[in-house]
Amino acid sequence: MSVSVHENRKSRASSGSINIYLFHKSSYADSVLTHLNLLRQQRLFTDVLLHAGNRTFPCHRAVLAACSRYFEAMFSGGLKESQDSEVNFDNSIHPEVLELLLDYAYSSRVIINEENAESLLEAGDMLEFQDIRDACAEFLEKNLHPTNCLGMLLLSDAHQCTKLYELSWRMCLSNFQTIRKNEDFLQLPQDMVVQLLSSEELETEDERLVYESAMNWISYDLKKRYCYLPELLQTVRLALLPAIYLMENVAMEELITKQRKSKEIVEEAIRCKLKILQNDGVVTSLCARPRKTGHALFLLGGQTFMCDKLYLVDQKAKEIIPKADIPSPRKEFSACAIGCKVYITGGRGSENGVSKDVWVYDTLHEEWSKAAPMLVARFGHGSAELKHCLYVVGGHTAATGCLPASPSVSLKQVEQYDPTTNKWTMVAPLREGVSNAAVVSAKLKLFAFGGTSVSHDKLPKVQCYDQCENRWTVPATCPQPWRYTAAAVLGNQIFIMGGDTEFSACSAYKFNSETYQWTKVGDVTAKRMSCHAVASGNKLYVVGGYFGIQRCKTLDCYDPTLDVWNSITTVPYSLIPTAFVSTWKHLPS
Amino acid sequence: MSVSVHETRKSRSSTGSMNISVFHKASHPDCVLAHLNTLRKHCMFTDVTLWAGDRAFPCHRAVLAASSRYFEAMFSHGLRESRDDTVNFQDNLHPEVLELLLDFAYSSRIVINEENAESLLEAGDMLQFHDVRDAAAEFLEKNLSPSNCLGMMVLSDAHQCRRLYEFSCRMSLVHFETVRQSEDFNSLSRDTLLDLISRDELETEDERVVFEAILQWVKHDLEQRKVHLPLLLRNVRLALLPSDCLKKAVSGEALLMADECTKLIIDEAFRCKTKILLNDGVVTSPFARPRKAGHTLLILGGQTFMCDKIYQVDHKAKEIIPKADLPSPRKEFSASAIGCKVYVTGGRGSENGVSKDVWVYDTVHEEWSKAAPMLIARFGHGSAELENCLYVVGGHTSLAGIFPASPSVSLKQVEKYDPGDNKWTMVAPMRDGVSNAAVVSAKLKLFVFGGTSIHRDMVSKVQCFDPSDNRWTIKAECPQPWRYTAAAVLGSQIFIMGGDTEYTAASAYRFDCETNQWTRIGDMTAKRMSCHAVASGNKLYVVGGYFGTQRCKTLDCYDPTSDTWNCITSVPYSLIPTAFVSTWKHLPA
């Protein structure tokens, strides 16, 4: 076929209609790559030798450059290697690993196993085979466990594997007692140790373990690490240590006594500890703030809906243990925790009178006291802690209340209690008065979900209070009209479940308090109206409630990472829970 | 990551359970190919330059070798080009075409249009890009037309595109009268021309068209081509030329008389023609064999089921014209054609007596004569021509027959008539006696489909007679039990349609007599029991039949290439077809 013949065909064809056919052979690229691999195996047209260890791999520059930016840059720049016909990795890459990478480059397939996954991830990142690096990270994610999670944390941090890093980090927090004994722990960089030990989510009930881990890390390389001691000491919740341990072991530690700043930190912690022991006001110092697993869960309830007793949930033994009687039994009250104290507000007593009373139970000293009464007598209201103050929201009142209100109509009034001054103050009222709403605080704001409105309907609104502006807004609508629901907070996520709704009473949702977005989560295991929920550690706990004539008999736990509910224990037959709170936990002094 | 670290990981992992993941990135080959294309466009890592015309194309040897065996061989095995860094196609390849091929090699995609398809086919074949060659062939198949089919035939023959060759050859045959006038015709090779003119399927009713075409071809390059004249003439159906045309050839065409071989051929053809004109025995010379388009379709029928007239189908005018009366009207007879004669055998006359008579109608001389009577009087039998002899198969007889047989029971007997000596001979009987069966000959064998058995059931067997063995075998089962069906033959394919069957009487099937395989084809436009079919040209024709009380009023045509049925014409109201034959056609002498 000559050039002139083709020109004739062009001129002839042009007189006809335009007829075009795009031919694409989807298997063509696979075929070319397979052929290139055969050429490589036969050492045909290869123009570069890669050396690793004592092995040599002949390759095609163009193919390597097409697969990896590392090689493209190496061969195309003014670098020495761009001219050389050999590249030597010496001992920085194992020949078995390089072989796997090259097999992948020429076949698009690679076998990843426990022996090679970490090395492949490193080499894949180094040579910019990002697909390999990501595939190995995924493999390691599926094979993550407490004995290797610390190593994976270091590996993923070094190679920008975000998801593997997140999963490893979470597993390290959950398995602190295991990883602290790991040799890798002692080799962690300083910033990572600080981040780990200071985390709220670090799962330990014995703060002594955290102190000892910090001291071990310092001692491992005392010469270089001694200067970091003050920073590490601040990660330990020193005021939560047993008093004797704090006085004798920590205060007397030679490494601490010889360093002025560390000594000051310990002395501050001792003063804080004494304040706790003497019950002298509210202790809000960071060194006394328990980690999430240091929370104690308390149920309030009784044999009827009249609440007369306080119970402790023993998570280890999976038991519910009576702790104290309530001085003044009541129903339709609200309960909230600040620090290690439980505040019980309002409700109705044995003669159905609406109460202004506020009782306070000190979980540390196991004793009751009375706080200043509320400004408005309430029942069916909600309450939450915000910046160490107690807020009481909505509910019903009676004609005898101090402020004017219609009998049995949902209140708009919101009042604030400051424990340090033992005083109540009115703050901005709700946009819409509600009772039987779910009230929580998250990210320095109060949220009220649903409830019963002044016209006795179920309200489908989310109402939000900003303390800085002293103002309520309505930033979102609930997925459905709601009342008698339960809510609890994990980070910026508010979980709402159960309740009286047009949909199933076992449905549960997640609300992002920053984006105001709703997400459905897994259903509660039973239908629960008037149930109660708290968050502790990285989990949610729900108890109580009923549906029809059936009482819900279990205490259930929800794990957000798995989106599953499990039963923790059975509620005693004689107990009807009417409130559920989480307080700071302290070890016996 | 060092070698020792990897070794440590291997030994550590081995203690655990074996856990393997095969990572496969399906898009990796496409990514690599796209990157290679980018490298090519930037002239990076290129190690060979292809030249075509005045354009240069830098490429990667490895990629070209992986894409094409032509380049793999060129660059390997010590050839000169294996060391040169340039390859020059000069004017053998148009640069636009080479560019398209290289784009395909590096992207798996190519745009094919009317301007480039032929050149791509040629270059794709030359450089062994067979996918491109095949894709271009497919494009050309879809754009085949009478004005280009001859050129495509030449092109596809040169480049082993078998399917395009078949399609273009078929189109050239169907449109011979058009293609012989094209410029390409004179450029055909001798073998290609022979292939065309030797085929029965060449569609012309006037053999002078073929005769003049080959003279034209020879004269186009007289010195080189006159040596081929004898062979070409042997493939023209010279005896079908009008007598005056033959005489003119003898006296007027100097070219034909100049060569002794050619003269002999003309003389032989003339003697054959004379024999036909004098009606001196059966003429079976290839010179007298009509092309399929030269067949005459004849319908036998009458105003009732008693047949008393022969009609001719005029294709051009789409009419059915009476031609002659039958000397002895009859029903339940059978009719077959040998050459230009129609043989009417057996049946029952006006007094229901079963007949042995054989009447012969000569379509050239338009006259009846009587042949020797059959050995057995029959009705409801089948007949077919095989190797210029007439075979009569099965049917019913009566006690008056020469051979013993039960009254009205289906016959096994088969007898053969040789027109050469005007004698009947018994041949091997069928395995199962049948009547009302479809009987045809194909590939030198007789085939009998279904029929009524001696138990009066419908038969579902295909029985086959091989005259060289004088033996019947059962080749296959019919798709369903059958009788009163029609059958016709195209090449090795036997088409069977209609009839009395458990399924629809409109169904039609194709049987491959070489592989014994059945295939369902498109249904007829009407249900037809006792219909009749013939093949002519590349098409099937069916006429007659009834369903319930409804007569089928049309003559329909089936085109196997499009698997569709169409109506040709209506059968006159006064005509009930009872037989349908196809004879050789001769022009008026």
Automatic annotation (TrEMBL), chain A:
CDD domains: BACK_KLHL37_ENC1 (cd18515), BTB_POZ_KLHL37_ENC1 (cd18267). Keywords: Kelch repeat, Repeat. InterPro entries: BACK (IPR011705), BTB-kelch_protein (IPR017096), BTB/POZ_dom (IPR000210), ENC1_BACK (IPR047097), ENC1_BTB_POZ_dom (IPR030562), Kelch-typ_b-propeller (IPR015915), Kelch_1 (IPR006652), SKP1/BTB/POZ_sf (IPR011333). GO terms for cellular component: chromatin; Cul3-RING ubiquitin ligase complex; cytoplasm; neuronal cell body; nuclear matrix; nucleoplasm. One of its GO terms (biological process) is positive regulation of neuron projection development. The keyword Methyltransferase does not apply. It comes from the Eukaryota. Residues 46-114 form the BTB domain. PANTHER family: ECTODERM-NEURAL CORTEX PROTEIN 1, KELCH PROTEIN. This is Ectodermal-neural cortex 1. It comes from Rattus norvegicus (Rat). The lineage of its organism: Eukaryota, Metazoa, Chordata, Craniata, Vertebrata.
